[in-house]
Amino acid sequence: MKKQEFRLVIYMNAPDSRGFYGGRGAASPLAYYCHLLNKRRKKRKVFLGGSIVLNGLGKYHSFVRNALKAAAKPLSLPYRVPCDGEQILISDKAFVYQNDAPLLSTSESGIYWTAKIDALGLRRSFSDEGQEEFTLDAVKIGREEYNGQRDETWGEKWSVLASRLVKLTEPLDKDNSPRLMVYGGSNRARMFWGNNGKPTIPRRNAFVHMTSREWRKYDEESKLATAKEVNVRELIDSQIKNTHINESLVHEMLRIMFASEGWWVNYELPISDKMGGRIDFLVKRDRDDDWRLIEVKLRDNPDAVMQLRGYIQAIRRDVRKHREESLFWLLWNGRNGCKKIKGVIVCGPGDHTVREARKAGYDVWTYKYKVKDSQLGIEVFDAKSKRLILETK
What we know:
Layout: E1 4-11, H1 29-37, E2 46-47, H2 61-70, E3 75-76, E4 79-83, E5 86-98, E6 110-122, H3 128-133, H4 137-145, E7 158-172, E8 181-183, E9 189-191, E10 205-211, H5 212-221, H6 232-242, H7 247-260, E11 264-267, E12 281-284, E13 291-296, H8 303-322, E14 341-347, H9 352-360, E15 363-372, E16 375-382, E17 388-391
Parallel strand pairs: 1-5, 13-14, 14-15
Antiparallel strand pairs: 1-10, 2-7, 3-6, 4-5, 5-6, 6-7, 8-9, 11-12, 12-13, 15-16, 16-17
Helix pairs in contact: 6-7, 8-9
């Protein structure tokens, strides 16, 4: 009998990410990749994505579930699971699928990254130290901001611990991937890719399978299809050189920088208020920092002050009215009120915006382009104190 090997495909989809604890940046593999590269961390590991479910395993589902529940500690992968006379392998190799990238506007549906998964288990089965150290910074911020309460179901969900992420030079899609299979509800095997080019299991994740021999062949053929590293400076340089210099480009660069620094970030959330419109950014730098609503303008533009004031007022009304049902639910303080929101305008150099913002009590962050090692980048600094806030490293 051919031995089947299952590999996890984690979905990180921008349209579904507005309600994430960690904001939309936490739906991007780039944020986890930068987390793993952070030299300040003792152990470079991270819980990859949100909780997972045991989709795609078919008749093997109960055997895998029972093995996970019976284990006192997370299962170290790869792991062989006996299944009523058969044996399947849960691989330590995984994929990341995206139907849209939260930090970049250029991607289409496909598998863009591979990952090495060290362990799989209930979140509570990992040590307390590990749960803290291996959680993405933005997710920590979001969970702590959730009305000051601990999510009691947090530890009861399956999580995967990753130690490496690698970006594919060419994404895998319906037309250029191996013959990935999944089991459906009837325990019958079907193709992972549907006719529409998207996964036939549409939500959260799937365990795909081929035989071990097929996987070995794929691994050998794909060795040259992975990028050695992802450099944020190179990424931003490419964005500047290949995109018109307009507000959307500045937005995209800020998304990358916020997420790569571990900030909590959401963007383009609609204002469900008579005012209408969409915010540019809602961010939180760390646990002790204030929530900041950011309005981005390409140039010095004092009109941003009135627009920002209207957005902040509308968000406060929305949070007080809808509480946890609001798109800005993390701002609800649990007492029919809204947490403090600081206003920030990001714009090109100039004095007019600074003067108007000062009257309203808002900060102004100014950006400028820079060149380092023949690559273009960006610096963001406080217009008043000249303190550097972000830079392309």
